[in-house]
Amino acid sequence: MDKFPMTLGGYQKLEADLKKLKNEERPAVIQAIAEARAHGDLSENAEYHAAKERQGWIESQILDLEDKYTRAEVIDVSKLDGISVKFGAIVTLIDEDTEEEKVWQIVGDLEADVKQRRISVSSPIARALIGKEQGSSVEVAAPGGARSYEIAKVVFK
């Protein structure tokens, strides 16, 4: 069983999702199945079949989240510091061609969300940044061609 890195915030979200499934979703679907059963003939009862399908989905989600929960290696980013990029760092990059500024946090694979400016530690840009120091230039292979960035700032929160 391989461990994988995760921020404390990601771990807490995973824990909250698991609790919601176990304490809210599971009891609600059990209640829906009981109500559908009370309507009689199960072979033609669409509500019953939908509830059973939902129950299967919920149970598979619970198993998946429990597996991730037990294999997560939680890293408290607030206890990290320094000027070199590592897991959990919030990195401010400046595109050397366009002078456009971008801010990314390097997180675990399960926490990555581009809309929230969180990139996976295994992504090409994160792999190019890891180990580099503030003020360094980095070249990243991108689908549209190589891009060069300057690491303007490295912060740990």
Automatic annotation (TrEMBL):
GO molecular function ontology, one term from the record: translation elongation factor activity
Keyword Cell inner membrane: no
InterPro entries registered for this protein in UniProt: GreA/GreB_C_sf, Tscrpt_elong_fac_GreA, Tscrpt_elong_fac_GreA/B, Tscrpt_elong_fac_GreA/B_C, Tscrpt_elong_fac_GreA/B_fam, Tscrpt_elong_fac_GreA/B_N, Tscrpt_elong_fac_GreA/B_N_sf
Domain of life of the organism encoding this protein: Bacteria
Stored Gene3D superfamilies: Transcription elongation factor, GreA/GreB, C-terminal domain (3.10.50.30), Transcription elongation factor, GreA/GreB, N-terminal domain (1.10.287.180)
Domain Transcription elongation factor GreA/GreB N-terminal: 5-74
Keyword set, alphabetical order: DNA-binding, Elongation factor, Protein biosynthesis, Transcription, Transcription regulation
Pfam families from the UniProt entry: GreA_GreB (PF01272), GreA_GreB_N (PF03449)
Recorded coiled-coil stretches: none
Family in the record: Belongs to the GreA/GreB family.
Function in brief: Necessary for efficient RNA polymerase transcription elongation past template-encoded arresting sites. The arresting sites in DNA have the property of trapping a certain fraction of elongating RNA polymerases that pass through, resulting in locked ternary complexes. Cleavage of the nascent transcript by cleavage factors such as GreA or GreB allows the resumption of elongation from the new 3'terminus. GreA releases sequences of 2 to 3 nucleotides.
Protein name: Transcription elongation factor GreA
Native source species: Hyphococcus aureus
